[in-house]
Design goal:
The chain is α/β, with parallel strands linked by helices. It is built from 12 helices and 11 strands.
């Protein structure tokens, strides 16, 4: 995805903090706020029999004697005992094995290829029991091959085009990220600091002002293949919203504006809307058809549609690599 000589320009410290805030795990919009929610994480290093190191990201080193008496502990129990929101157990030598095997497998390629290789090696250690993580947000999520990732981005943003995300708040440009793609990958990531002055006088209505943002980015980076615009708070809600059809509904009511919209994303939005429609039909059928005559027919229809779109019918599984599903799993706070 990224070229070896990718440049990052136009970001102030505030802009960077806002971009990073988009990728901070958070609760869904309808989840109750828990002031007593566990915070931070616990990392435990062991040799298979004895606990060697125990660290909490919020308070530092923890006493080994207290945890050693009950070792081994499950990773979820470890998090519960130390009031942590996540926990990791590492067997001694696991990280060294990952790095040694990465060195032997590393091939010429961009950062994306190398990151996928490291993720695959870490998954192998997890399957072998040397690494355990809780909560398992990514458990069961397939790791895409470099070819799949490349093909996905080729379809969304071909070489010579630019992808743009622009988020607004209270009538101002909150942050934006533009990525220009070439044959070698993304060679420029442009932030909002140099764009704001080129946008001119804003109207205070982001649905109109997004056109000025698109124009300013195109003047610096070239034609857009995809533009995504929304209010920052609404975009963050959608990132973790598990409701079928959430993105399609937001686009329909113009909570999110996609312009231009590439055909592959239009297909994904159509599938998302279809999942919401099937869910609504099933809910209606359960209310008006207590005998269960209509339900099996809807299930069969969903299974047929799932085979046609790459889903797995009743299992509700997505195609092998769905960027929106990957984003939701990474950012959704389970508790």
């Amino acid at each position: 995805m990224f070229a070896g000589d990718v440049r990052f320009e136009g970001f102030t410290a505030t802009d960077w903090s806002r971009v990073l805030a988009l990728f901070r795990p958070r609760r869904t919009a309808n989840a109750p706020r828990d002031p007593e929610r566990a915070r931070g994480g616990v990392v435990a290093v062991h040799d298979g029999k004895r606990l060697r190191k125990l660290v909490h990201t919020e308070v530092g080193r923890l006493r080994l004697e207290d945890a050693q008496r009950d070792w081994p502990l499950g990773v979820e129990e470890l998090a519960r005992r130390h009031h942590a929101s996540w926990a990791v157990t590492l067997e001694l030598g696991a990280l060294e094995r990952i790095m040694d095997r990465f060195a032997s497998r590393a091939r010429a390629g961009g950062p994306t290829t190398q990151l996928i290789t490291v993720a695959s090696l870490a998954r192998e250690e997890m399957v072998g029991g040397a690494i355990d993580v809780w909560p398992g947000r990514m458990r069961g999520m397939p790791i895409p091959s470099p070819g799949v990732v490349r093909g996905t981005f080729d379809s969304i943003c071909p070489a010579g085009k630019t992808m743009l995300v622009g988020l607004f708040e209270q009538g101002e440009l909150w942050t934006s990220v533009a990525m220009r793609r070439t044959d070698r990958g993304v060679d420029l990531v442009l932030g909002p600091d140099e764009i704001r002055a080129d946008m001119g006088l804003l109207a205070g209505d982001w649905r109109r002002d997004c056109r000025h943002l698109a124009r300013a980015v195109e003047e610096r980076c070239g034609p857009l293949a995809l533009g995504c615009y929304a209010e920052a708070t609404r975009f963050q809600e959608l990132e973790v919203d598990p409701t079928p059809g959430a993105w399609a509904r937001a686009v329909a009511v113009r909570d999110v504006i996609l312009a231009p919209l590439s055909p592959p994303l239009a297909i994904l939005l159509g599938i998302d809307a279809g999942r919401a429609a099937f869910g609504a039909l099933r809910a209606v059928a359960e209310r008006i058809d207590p005998v269960g005559v209509v339900g099996p027919a809807l299930a069969a229809l969903r299974e047929f549609a799932g085979r046609a779109t790459g889903e797995d019918g009743e299992g509700g599984q997505r195609p092998p690599f769905s960027p929106l599903e990957l984003l939701r799993k990474l950012l959704s706070r389970e508790r």
